[in-house]
Amino acid sequence: MSAAVSVASTSVPPAKAASPWRTPVAIVAAAAALAFVPKLGLPAFYDSLLYLILHWIVLATSWNILSGYTGYFSFGHGAFFGAGIYTTSTLLSRYDWPFLWTLPVAALVACVLGVALGAVVFRVKGIRGEVFALLTLAVTFVIGTIIVNTPIDGGNGVSLSAVPVPAIGPTPSSTFYLLALAAATLTMLVAWRITTTKFGAGLFAIHDDEDAAEVMGVPTYRYKLVALGISCALAGVAGGIHALFLSYVTVGEVFTITVPLTVVLMSVLGGTRHWAGPAVGAVAITLLLYSFTAANHAVAGKAMVGVILIAAILFMPDGILPRLLKMLPRRLPIVVAGALPAPAVASAAGEVLLRTRGLAKSFRGVKALAGVDVDVRRGEILGLLGPNGSGKSTFINAVTGHYVPTAGSVVFEGRELAGRAAHLIARAGISRTYQIPRPFPHQTVLDNVALAAMFGGGIATPAAARSQAMTWLAFAGLQEKAHAHPDELNLHQRKFLELARALASRPRLVLLDEVLCGLTPSEIDDAVALVRRIRDQGSTVVFVEHVMRAVMALTDRVVVFDHGELLAEGLAAEVMQRPEVMTAYLGQPAVEKPNA
Amino acid sequence: MSGFTMPSATLLAQSVLSGVFVGALYGLLGLGLSLSWGLLRLINLAHFAFAFLAAYLCYQMASMGMDPLLTLLVIVPLFFAIGAGLHALMARFAITPFNSLLVTFGLTGIVEALIQSIWTADFRKLESAYGEHRYKLAGLYIPLPELITLALAVGLSFAVWAVLRYTDLGKALRASAEDAPIAAAFGIHQRRNALLLAGTCSALASVAGVCLALGFTLAPSQIYAWIGVVFAAVMLGGLGRALAPLIAGVIIGVSEAVTMAVTAPSWAPLVSFTLLIAILLFRPGRAA
Fold first, then answer.
1. A145 contact B CB<8A
2. pLDDT at position A3, please?
3. Residue numbers of the domain that contains B31
4. Which of A382, A488, B59, B232 suits A129 as a labelling partner, its CA being 20 to 30 A distant?
């Protein structure tokens, strides 16, 4: 569709403050123009060809809403498409429903099926990538087997030749064309709209690093489920229309590996990270296949599609559309930094902000954290010390919900957080940094921070979040790098990006996991100053660190862990003198043995 | 939908036996797939196309008068070279596991078109001396082609298992799969080993192809019929393990055959795919 060309930025969601409605207007205008094609009185086979193109646009674009945006490649799109086909054909052949009324039901059935599947599959933590692909493929065959063996199909297929085609266009073939045009327009609008919302930003974050997204406040489970539901509903509509178009449906033709593979091929060829990429791929592949079948070279066409697929993956792994868009001059969106927000809460400093009691985490019998009681007071910088393997990072992971604690409680501002989902803890006002920075690699530095502002900080729109994010980048001294990608930053800048991201979620408590590790002495001085400013702007800081100079300079109090237990607590200078702390760090003093 | 009928003991035993035989072929097809996925991180969909290409070559040479088993002498080295060549291409472009799935799907389409243009889309059946031999043991029929398949599947699975477990090459391959940079730092020549393994996987596919030609009717579209169930066997067994595809294949084959005997043949896919779904849900780590 012509609308595809009007998007300038490949970063997602596209940053265009100027005319947010240009893209949907272009989609609707293109659709309105295409609606006049049947008036031209072209031979019926043009209607059918155009129908097929639009049909594949709906299927590929709807697939992309889950699989392209989040990276969960589904090979089960044939099942949801097939659910739509069989819903419509059952309602038509058995219950004599009017055709158009069957389409919403087809969407609903496909959606319910998808959400039910997702509700189970997305609960299992290890299911990512290839496992998800195979699982969804297996589901396709299971559903196909059930349908073929039950009265829904009965093994002989369902004939719809007696069902009248509604007179929407001047001819039956133009009716199908117009229906598919409407479905494709709807699908493209939905796919575009998602990329401009907080929801879309969350989906792309899941694609890049699902764990980090969850810890930053993205409700990953719900978002994946909603994306799958939308994706399935649209596939169901395409199936409903296609049932009548085929007029004779069989399980053998519907529940195959062909539908998902074609859809994957189209999307990957066009570009999965762009809402219009699958449509570009769908047009290209459908025309290509058609040109070969029309010239009676179907076999050569099959080989040709194979060659093109291989060439596309090898030479354009990101897809045609992103490649084309890269050639256009890139207009950087102008984002004006907002004012630094007022310090979070000015309420009584010194009261207990976070209280853990008996907090424990075991990994198959290894007690990484053996029940610690820690109080963090509002407004302080608390140093968390201990030798390697003493449980410091486990403590951060247990408090932020990355790990579910084995036992114990985590009370933050009077609310119990232990066992709650990580994104809820992020929203409650706790954020963290990773020792090895984990930025979202496909998003700009600005969008990385904007994501935290949206999900942890509760800002509703990407535009407002970007303005806020710019403020935090300035705070961390990274405003020059706003439009760079994380792989263009050095380690020092990436650590500061982690800090900006943690701050953008407006936390009352920040847990910093070895931010100084790997930095040069002068960079450490910058970072120490920054941590102090983080406290001054209203966040309480828990500071895991090995660099003693920084610990002495920054901390109000320290706690020392050893073997997962709390060893000491107090002022840094005093605690580090205690014999048991020195032993934990340096080992037992050597006892001089008399030479025998 | 036919109801449940309890078949006679002989029929049931015959079903179990035929399940073992077809399961052996699942295992043999799955062996190369599992090794490639588990040790090379490449999901080779073209494995099935290679098997069918080998089957057609076997069919062609046998119909020109060659003994079907002797065609292995030509077919195995040929497919070893094809597999190694494909891997060299994949390595040159540093393909991710997911993209390897797409590239080899493209290749499958090309091979399918090639087969169709040479041998047409019609069904072909290899007529050989082996096909007519059947043994009768305790009232059960044992066809010779299936017996050959079983013997090859068991023999090759154990051979691969022994190589992976006891030889330096096997240890090097397993080390590379676990942590490639560290393995390289210990002086393992990964490029050469990977080419060797990729060639072996394709050679295994071609052996499975010859078994296919001996026992089954061939058609280009049949390539896709095997993908689902063989993937089920591979995942059920766990990746990169030599004996697992055979065991899992036999489990699936037998449960399918019994399902067919007790209900109707059209219910058979339900068993393998339900098994696959169950294993993926409860042990997702096996495929990671």
1. yes
2. 38
3. 9-287
4. A488
